[in-house]
Structure formats: C-alpha cells, structure tokens
Design a protein that fits this description.
Layout lengths: L9 H22 L5 H6 L6 H27 L5 H24 L6 H7 L2 H34 L3 H48 L4 H11 L17 H7 L4 H18 L1 H7 L5 H35 L11 H8 L5 H14 L3 H17 L5 H25 L6 H25 L6 H23 L10 H17 L15
Helix pairs in contact: 1-7, 1-14, 3-6, 3-7, 3-11, 3-12, 3-14, 4-10, 4-12, 5-6, 6-7, 6-13, 6-14, 6-15, 6-16, 6-17, 6-18, 7-12, 7-14, 7-16, 8-12, 10-17, 15-16, 17-18, 17-19, 18-19
Length: about 500
Amino acid sequence: MFGAVSSLTWPDYAVLALALSVLVAIGVAFGREQRDTVDFFLARRQVPWWAACLSFLATEISAVTIISVPATAYSENWQYAQFFVGSSLAKLVVAFLFIPAFYRHEVTTIYEFLAHRFGRATQVAGSIFFFITRLAGSGVRLMAAALAVSILMGWPLVPTLIVFTLVSIVYIAAGGVKAVVWTNVFQALLFLLAGGVTLGYLVSQIDGGLDAVARVAGAAGRLDVVDWGPAPGAPDFWRRALTQPNIVWVAVLNGFVGSMAAFGTDHDLMQRLLTVETRRRSQFTLSLTPLGTLLTLAIYLGLGASLYTFYAQNPGLPVSRPDEILPHYVQQVMPPVLRGLMLSAIVLASIDSPLGSLSASFVTDVYRPLLVRGRAETHYLRVSRVCVVVFGVILGLIAYAFSSYDGILWLAFKIAGVTFGSLLGVFLLGLLTRRRVSDGANVAAMIVMALVNLALLVLSERQILVFAWSWLVIVGTVGTMGLALLFTGRSAPDHLLSDSVVD
C-alpha cells in the first residue's frame, strides 16, 4: 500500500500543518534558552511535574501503541492489558528504588550512577547497551508511524522516513530536552483527543453501537483480557509457561521485570523524570503515569475491537493487513478534519524521538570523560547538537531496515529483551547490594548474557527451541547478576541494603 493515492483533503492538511507549526514553534522558542549542557539535557530541573508526567506518557506510548495496540486487539484480543498490571507495579519500584539514587548523585544520565557505584567501564558499557537498545527500539517505532502516514498521505515510505527524521533533528537540536518535554505534552494531549474522537466516530458507524462491539468482538474472543493458562501441576504447565507469554501470571511477571528495565535503565524515559526539581516530585510524577497509560490503553484497545466489529458488519469493504488496519480505516472511512486529527496524532507520535537522550548519554558518558576533557560548555553544547544529527541519520536507516517486518508491537519487545536484562542486572546489583563488584566483571557479564539472549531469541524465532521471548529480560537480569558476582569472586560481604533508600 506504499504510495497509494491519498484521500486527504485540504482541511486534513490544515489540521496537520497547524499541529506541525505548534511543534516547530516550541522548538524555536526554547532554542534561545540553551546556554550549556545542563539546559540542553536537564532543562535545569525546572519542568513542572505535570508536564513531565505527560512527557513520560508520550514517550512510553509512542506510535507503536497508536498503530499496533489496535492492530493487536483487532487480530488477537485484549490480553496485552495484562502487561499493564506488571508495568504499573514496576513504576512504583522505579519511583522508590531507582529515582532516589539518581537524584542523590545528581546525575545528568542514569549511567553516571554506574560509574559512582562500580567504575567507568560499567558506565560506558551501560551507555553503549542503551545506544543499541534505544536505536533498535525507536527504529521500530519510527517505521510503524512512517508506514501509517505513507498509507494515509499516499507517500512512498522512504520520503516519509526522511521528513520525520529531519523534523526530529531540527526541533531537538534547537531546543534540547525542554523542547522535547513540551512537545511531548502537546503530543500526549493530541493522541488522547484523536483516539477518543476516532473511537466515538467508529462506534457511531457500527450498527448497534457498543452493544454490537461487545457481542460481535466478544463472541470472536477479541475482548478476552485474561489467559489463565494451565493449572499448576498440569502435565503441560511448564511447557506452556515457557512458550505462551500471555498467560496471566507470566504476563504480569514479565511486564513487571521488563518495565522495571525499560523505566529504570533506559535514559530516554528516565530523562523526562530528571527534569523535575526534586526527588519527591519526580517520584510523584512517575507514580501518576499509570492513570494516563490505562486511559490510553482503554481507548486504543477499544479501537481494535470496534474495528473488528465494523469490518465484520461490512464484509464488502477492502481490508488491509492487521498492522495497517487503523490507518487504513482512517484513510478509507473517516470524514475530513477527523481524519486530519488522527493523522496529526500519528505524525507527532513518530516525531517524538530519543535523539536528545542518545546525545546526552554519548556526551556525558563517553565524549566528555573519555575523549575530550576540560573544554568549555559551549564546545560540549555544540557537540551535543551534532550528535543529535548523527543519531537521527542512524535512526532513520534502522527504521528503514525494519520496514518489511510484521507484528510490530511484539518486535519492539523482542529487541528490548536481548539487552534490557543486562542493564537491569547491573543496576540492581548497584541498588540492592553494597558488594564490591569488579568493573570488568560487570562488563563481561553484560556481554555474555546479551549474547545468550540473542541466541535464545534466534533459536526461538526459528522454532529450533521452544522458548517465549517474554522470558528474555528475566533470564538476562538473573544471569548478569549471577555472572558478575561469580567473575568477581567472594571478595566482599553482601548486604541487602538499597543505595536508594539510605537518605
């Protein structure tokens, strides 16, 4: 469907132009306030908590949620919501275990904590793992949004990727994290509004409305939320537990551990929380985000079930592949202006990129301490902006490489599963113990477990090994902690005392 004839009208383009104008205006407005890297990376910790909360929500949700959650609900069910339970619990752990340590050490990036706790090698390894994880994961996000917009606007995929990448580079390089946060606020409000309006219109076009959705989608299993799985002691209990990620206790457990890794060890998400003035406000901000996530999931899972019902009642209408079902419906069925509203939400969700956090990590964790020391702040600010450009080009190329993949939502989780366990393992060693762990042992353990997880994922995808990708983060976390301690040896006592609660 790439390059199909666009059905957009001038009111749709007007809505999109207005949304993009607001985005560019924010970047230009805050570009004048960037004097040093504290401004560029932390906004001098002067961002209001509610703005940081919406910014975190926009970063957590992204275009993958807007496109792929409805697609998953349309083609499968609502069992993705089980991960939300574990994810919400993980946010509380990150708020009260991770955030206090980051504020105590007054870090610019969270990998500086690893340097304080273990040494420079662990810090650099953590930063490199972040580069790999975030570039790959955000490449999937960017590709999902570009695919949707190419369908809606009738553009080929490559020019769409180029436009998104250029806009991201311009406003982030100009305005730094403050521009990112305030554009995120606008983005979050827009995708909530657009999703709600689209859902309302879609239900109005279904014969029987919400009752029909409950009846038709429910009969087809599209509203199933919980997969109880086999009873403990059943002959196939462990086989299914290791191969079916949607069994409720497996989903909650993996959602908990995976989200702890995503929220606590990924600087793209944590950067938003570090822009708030105090530790307590940062903790409060993160603790509130599950409410926004729940509302977003309800809207976009509802869209998937409603789309299933709509096309079940209208079998004569053309239907796309599941990953394209929402943009396909928006293009083919929705009226002008409303179509432009959803288009704007998808476009802005795609433009939210990790370029600022990637630049922050490279300059703070690698460039300033290892490559070029003792230069003026103007030099590091200039290098930070150059890094935004370089990472933007790399991100666009990675997004194009993922353009042939189906199952976008699960692809993003699989990629993160390979490296997140290594990151979470070293952070938990630093937060939960006082043990002296060798810097080199940490790095070796992280690399070994990332390679083990990559091998497990490849074998699972090729169906050589029966193993669900959802266990990768847990395997990586436990393995990294165990190997780091093993490689270090028994040189120091281990006290289960959290670094983040000693105030």
